[in-house]
Amino acid sequence: MKQSNLLVPNVKNTINDEEAASSLLIEGGFLGEYQENRFVFLPLGMLVMEKIKKIVLEELHSLSAIEFQLPVAVADQGETYLLQLLTEGQLATSKELLNIFQIQVKVEQNKEYQFPGGIALEPTELDGYSFHSASTELSEVFHRFEQAFQRILARCQLEYKSVIALPQKAIHKEIKDLLAISSEGKTIFCESTQGDYSAKVEAATRYSLVKKSHATFLPLERKIPATGFKLDDGNQLTCYFLRASKKPILLFLAKNDRLNLAKISQKMQHKVVEIKKQEVEKYFGTSYELFSFDLISPDWTILADLEVENRTNMTMMNPDEASYYENINLGRDLPNVSFGDFSYVQEGDLAPDGKGTLLFKKGVKIGQFMKKMITQKTSDTANEEKKVYIGHYQLSLSLLFLMIAKQHHKNGHLNWPEEVAPFDLHILPIDYQNSYQQVLAQEVEEMMVAKGYEVLIDDRDSSLEEKQKDADLISCPVEIVIGEKAVEGVVEIKIRASQAVVEVRKEELADTLAILLQTTE
Predict the structure, then answer these.
(1) Taking every annotated instance into account, which residue ranges of this chain make up the domain Anticodon-binding (predicted)?
(2) Which helix (H) or strand (E) segment is 457 a member of?
(3) Is the pLDDT of residue 177 over 70?
(4) Is-contact 391 225, C-beta < 8 A?
(5) Could you say which of 56, 343, 353, 475 has the lowest number of CB atoms within 10 Å?
(6) CB neighbours of 319 closer than 8 A, spacing ≥ 6?
(7) d(CA 291, CA 148)
């Protein structure tokens, strides 16, 4: 392709450390701004997206997955549509759909992806589905999709993490989020310094060092603190007043732990919120200031964190701070208490297997794996219910594009991985009007296209400095410079990844390039 045929707006964008990748995408002509901070893919960006789609299709076809496509306006209703086909017996081929997917722009709720630097793009997303009559079948296919996604991201040379996430609904049996590693990401996750454990911070668990105590339970007492008195934080409780809709929930945590409403909401299968002090009486029947153990009602839901399950003779400051309790033993004092994991982990906590510590990192969510189980009525006269096990496998190709650029830029230049670069080779004749250079450039283009390379040739009447600057912005893996030695049939090869520079004759170009590219792998 001739570079003069590309649509590249003459946009100058100030590059700084915070917005380097987004600025390079705009300056290089991959993205174009059509409204303030709202962008579309230009031809170069479309070429990269097509390369990404090609990788995705190859890996999904290796799973014998088949493609369908709903209209843009209802692209998010793929699962509903496919379930309808299964339920109503409209399939002439099979009673089960094992692997099926669509790649489509989604427009629900005007959703756009925000990228560091202020870029907003319409989301182009992959949605894969599998439907099964047994959970074992789903687990097998789920694992195969995970492996396929791993290959996709490896071929895109993206640094990422697959992390445990909290199920949001009763039908959700397992969720994993795919996070592209980024210091500017808004999603915090933790991983073990040893082993493979990784989870979003709100879903993460830890290994408890608190062992079951055999200490004698002492009588529960309420006391007035003396001047300067301070409770021992190491064995102190804190209570929280919560609600699920109008249902009151009293929760007990260790003093140094932080309340995790997401975990509690999962436990209750309903959104749980913390109650303001002035609203406690409305839901609990007693004011915040007058709360005491004597007033705890059996009608309340009483929860406590696992970290305090085995502790004995704990202390707790009463909400009015005018009194405190000694010798709280939750299993004894609150027989209807339910223990669970209701707190956030902290950096440095032991990983669940006890073999490493938890390290916090940041990322950008680019995809998700989800296992679901639903019950549906059969269509026969018995009107029986059957279980349907569903796998949903999502990947945002728009965010994948952006995060590849984010992770592969350095010193003011993009450095596209080979498989997603817009072109394989960029031919730069120093003077395209020079007949020797023009002829050699065309011969090299024809020869390399015949070898299977995708070639961009800079046919513009521009200075070498401007051509090289634009070549750095486009960032093809290989540059071939043709200059004064064109009359001798000699060209200069530059490998972007290694910065290796070699002069070769035209006849030796293909073999030399193959060796150089193999060396950089």
Answers:
(1) 427-513
(2) strand 455-457
(3) yes
(4) no
(5) 353
(6) 239, 277, 288, 289, 291
(7) 55
One-letter amino acid at 127 equals D
Quick one: tokens of 213? Answer: 């105590």
Total residue length of the chain: 521
Tokens of 79: 């699962």
pLDDT value of position 43: 93
**Cβ neighbours, 10 Å, residue 229:** 9
Q: What is the pLDDT of residues 449-507, one digit of tens each?
A: 999 999 999 988 888 888 998 898 899 999 999 999 999 999 999 998 888 899 999 99
464-466-117 Cα angle (round to 5): 150
- Number of Cα atoms under 13 Å in the Cβ half of residue 314: 28
Residue-wise DSSP of 23-76: HHHHHTTSEEEEETTEEEE-HHHHHHHHHHHHHHHHHHHTTT-EE----GGGGG
| Residue 356 Cα to chain centre, angstroms | 23
Task: Report the C-alpha gap between 179 and 159 in whole angstroms.
Answer: 9
pLDDT tens, residue by residue, 80-115: 888 887 766 654 455 555 788 888 887 654 455 556
The residues with which 373 forms a beta bridge, in sequence order, are 389
pLDDT, greater one: 84 or 235: 235
